[in-house]
Amino acid sequence: MDLLLAAVLGAVLGATVAVWVVLSRARTRPTVQERLNVTEVQVPDGVSQMLGVLRSAGVVVGPHDEVLQATDQARGVGLVRGTRVVHREMLELVREARRTGQVQSVDLELVRGGDQQSHFSVRVAPLSEELVVILAEDRTTAVRLEAIRRDFVTNVSHELKTPIGAISLLSEAVTEAAEEPGTVRSFAARMQHESNRLAGLVAQIIQLSGVQGDDPLLAPKRVSVDEVLAEAVDVCRVDAVDRQIELVVARDEGLVVMGDEAQLAMAVSNLVRNAVLYSEPGGRVTVSSRRTVRGEDQLVEMRVSDTGIGIAAADLERIFERFYRVDYARSRANGGNGLGLSIVKHVAAAHGGDVGVWSKVGQGSTFSITLPEHVEVPGHAGAAQRDAAELHEEQEQER
Question: What is the pTM of this model?
Fold first, then answer.
């Protein structure tokens, strides 16, 4: 019995000693983080200062591919997450630069999320045997704008060829039918129609170029919504009478927004013109304005509603694209070219607002432009006028 007890006590004591030895070794063995800290590489102050003033994304990578420093831009565009470089393509450039000691320059197309692509102009250079710096310029916006420009030029070229080609063919036909007055008159009428289409297309291209090149909020002016609606309706009144369409105006009076009155009137008139174009004789087009609230924002909504043919759900997502036409044959017959709604969308965005649409086939459509309302601060306008008067008086005294 004593021998058994002694054996058990010996086993327990041996196990206790073994555990103590293991724990002692674990305490004295450095952790992974401690080993990294022992050999931690410091980023030179000059490099940190350089990254701080760069507009492009900058990343300093250590000897184990760990991120030692990254600018806010690098993290914002998703190049860095935590202490690692996110994209393998960029990491391979880092390793190549470290291996060869040579600067690596390349344009990369990286997946941002889902089917979204980001475009970067990347330069990777070794700073020392251990440090590598990444400089990446986000060119996503520039690439997207270039693609839009190419598409626009292609579409414009196609749209211009159609009426120009038709006019050319009709002029030849007129020449050949010179001895047939009836035929000449028929061809001449078609030539006039095509020339009107061409003139309308050129005018809208000029309008689109104008609104794209002019920021209405750089030097905004008070714009009366009543006057915008009145001008838009007046522009389209003759077409409405010709097509036997009733134009109705219903508005909350006295609403004011900031921006460019000519641009806003052009946008609303484009909506009214489309409503008249796609309404059957005897239909009604209602142009209205109202004050609305979205969260804490006080807004003005200008709406154009019609009782026309409506728009299919499949087309609603694309109607604001340039040159997109729901009913190509009807648009062509009436001189439509698919630029009107893209102009509306651009004008709304340039004024800090947005556009919306509701439509159902056979019941009609409602388009809306929603903009921030301009609210006068009591006494502010008078104070501004007094400041301007005092400034003018001081300038006169200096002269």
Answer: 0.54
